[in-house]
Structure formats: structure tokens, C-alpha cells
Design a protein that fits this description.
two-stranded antiparallel ribbon; mainly alpha; single chain
């Protein structure tokens, strides 16, 4: 395993899909509700900062219920370790903040 192809627990391709899923959730908050997605991202970052997996997952579950979507299975992994929690959480929040679209716009 090289550092380029794999970080802590997920490879670049997996992290790409985690960011994408954050972006998909953001799209679920249409119109004026996009500001809600920004507020959710701020709260998720706070939970990541204090390493509070339970509150993080509670907010994830509520967010997916709000938009009527299924919670991605990779969230089960956040309970493995602190490193995995940080890795998954930060990749997801990046997508939720619109980082996925910006990343793809620069590649195109």
C-alpha cells in the first residue's frame, strides 16, 4: 500500500464516492434549503472536531430522513476507529459543502 493510492482506511476512489454522496445530499436540500445543508456541514465539522460519533451519526440520519434518501453504507465504518471517523467525515463534509462539484469542474 502506498500513500498515494491509500490513506488510513479508504483509497482515493472510495473517498471520491464519499465526497460525491455528500454532494448528492446537498442537492436534496433544494432552493432556499441549501442554507440548511451549510448549517448541517458546520455541525458535522463540530462533531468531527470533538470526535463525537454519536451526534455526528444522529445528524446524518436526520438529514437523510429529511431528504427521503437511504443512508450510504460507508457510514457504518465510522465506528471502527478515530482515524476512519475523521477520514469518512471530512470527505463527506467536503462534498456536502460543494467540494465535489468544484473538484469535477477543475478536472473537466
Amino acid at each position: 500500500m502506498t500513500e498515494d493510492s491509500q490513506t488510513k482506511g479508504f483509497n482515493k476512489k472510495q473517498l471520491y464516492f464519499i465526497r460525491r454522496d455528500g454532494s448528492i445530499l446537498r442537492r436534496g436540500y433544494k432552493g432556499n434549503n441549501v442554507k440548511k445543508a451549510d448549517g448541517i456541514a458546520i455541525k458535522l465539522l463540530d462533531y468531527l472536531r470533538v470526535n463525537n460519533r454519536n451526534q455526528f451519526m444522529n445528524l446524518i440520519l436526520n438529514s437523510y430522513m429529511y431528504v427521503g434518501e437511504t443512508v450510504p453504507s460507508f457510514f457504518n465504518e465510522v465506528f471502527q476507529s478515530d482515524e476512519v471517523f475523521q477520514e469518512v467525515g471530512l470527505a463527506f463534509v467536503t462534498g456536502l459543502l460543494g467540494g465535489f462539484e468544484k473538484e469535477n469542474a477543475t478536472e473537466a
